[in-house]
Amino acid sequence: MKLNLPKRILVTGAQGTLGSEIVNIYLEAGCKVVGTYFSPSKEVPASRESLEWIQVDLTDSRWVRTTFSEQGQAHGQNGGRSSPQSGFDAWIHCAGGFRFSTVEQTTDGDLDFLLNLNLRSAFYLARELVPFMKKKNFGRIVFVSSRATLGAGVGMAAYAASKAGLNILTAALAEEVKAFDITVNSVLPTVIDSPANRKDMPNEDFSKWVSPSQLAEIIFSLTAPWGKPIHGALIPVSGRL
Fold it and tell me: Is residue 199 part of a domain?
């Protein structure tokens, strides 16, 4: 049976451990995928059939507007690189960052880093992408938040606060698009089993962490036809922690 999946997917934060899994699951399903990257010191990621890369600093509102606004998409304004063309059927927002710090140790730079990457980037993109989805009366949006927003521990204040803002964005945006065939949801994982997390926490039991491939499957299901009734949800994905 052929699935009626979204045809064109935007994956922001596509080079990370989770983002890579999400890119692959949609490519395997026959979708066209656009991934974002921002690494000025590195080469452009290699495109392949059905996979395109665009460079954008998601924390820069002007860059996001130039790349994803209606004017930018119509005229190919993307710093001389490939342009998104005509909107997206689904957007998976994996971009984010983490810093462990108690309140008194958190610098202004730490706070700006977390708010910019975890919250402002999502807001900037939603501001540009949602109008296209409204025009065609279709869209699937999934944010990657954190279960820490449901009960943050020591050293998690700034991080959890920035992700909690993403939860509220999910709820508010879901209300704004209720009249359209657009769904907005967030997944709330605990620790994702990535090479970076294994390096930072070498003595932990990795088997209790959230598998990137399984989390990608959950996200995929929210954009598949059977995920349509799920709207405005904050979905904990706890692994065994």
Answer: yes
Helix (H, G, I), strand (E, B) or coil at 59: coil
Asked whether residue 1 is assigned to any structural domain, the reply reads no
In angstroms, rounded to a whole number, what is the distance separating the alpha carbons of residues 181 and 54? 27
Distance (Å, whole) CA 238 – CA 146? 9
User: Token pair 């036809």 is at which residue?
Assistant: 225
One-letter amino acid at 125 equals L
Task: Provide the CATH number for the domain around residue 46.
Answer: 3.40.50.720
As a whole number, mean pLDDT of residues 18-40 equals 93
pLDDT at 144: 98
- Counted domains in the chain: 1
- Retrieve residue 232's tokens: 């405005």
User: Which residue range is the domain that position 143 belongs to?
Assistant: 8-237
pTM over 0.85: yes
Distance CA 69, CA 82 (A): 14
